[in-house]
Amino acid sequence: MVNSHCARYRTVLDGAGHFGDERTIIEATDAEPEVVEALVENYEESQLEALRAALFASAIIVIIALFLSRKLPTKRVDEIAAETREAEAALALDEDVP
Questions:
Q1: 6-to-20, 42, 90 alpha-carbon distances in Å
Q2: Rounded Cα gap, residues 22 and 44, in angstroms
Q3: Distances (CA, A) of 13 to 27, 42, 73, 95
Q4: What's the pTM?
Q5: CA 48 – CA 54 distance, rounded (Å)
Q6: pLDDT in tens, 73-86
Q7: Residue whose C-alpha is closest to residue 39's, from 11, 8, 2, 1
Q8: Of the spans 29-38, 52-61, 86-95, which averages the highest pLDDT?
Q9: Of 43, 50, 51, which is closest to residue 12 (Cα–Cα)?
Q10: Does residue 95 surpass a pLDDT of 80?
Q11: Which pLDDT score, from 0 to 100, does residue 51 have?
Q12: Which of 16, 17, 28, 59 is the most exposed place for a label (fewest CB within 10 A)?
C-alpha cells in the first residue's frame, strides 16, 4: 500500500523545492496520517542514501586523484630550466678542458 502511495506522491515531492517540505506537501493531500508518516520516512531515508552514495563517490574520486597526482613534478618549470642550463654549462666547460 505504501509503495503505491510513494509512486503517487513522488511527483509532488520532486517539486518540493526545500528539504523538509515533504511532510507539509503530503499533509496537504488526502493521505491518511500513517501513510504520510510512511512516505516521509521513506523519502528521508532515500535522501540519506543518496547523500551517502554521493559522499562515497566523492571519496573515490579524491583517492583516484591522489593516486594519479603522485607523478606530478615537484619543481617548477623555471627551476628545471635553470638546472638544465647549469648542467649544460658544466658539460661545455668539461669538454673545453684538455
A1: 17, 8, 77
A2: 9
A3: 12, 12, 49, 79
A4: 0.53
A5: 10
A6: 888 888 888 889 98
A7: 2
A8: 52-61
A9: 43
A10: no
A11: 96
A12: 17
The grid coordinates of residue 84 equal 638544465
**Burial environment of residue 6 by CB neighbours within 10 A (0 to 12, 13 to 18, 19 or more):** middle
Burial of 44 (0-12, 13-18, 19+ CB in 10 A): middle
Specify the residue for cell string 503505491: 4
Question: In this structure, what C-alpha cell is assigned to residue 35?
Answer: 501513510
- Which position has the grid cell 627551476? 79
Give yes or no for a contact between 2 and 35, defined as CB atoms under 8 angstroms apart.
Answer: yes
**Separation between Cα atoms, residue 58 and residue 61, nearest integer Å:** 5
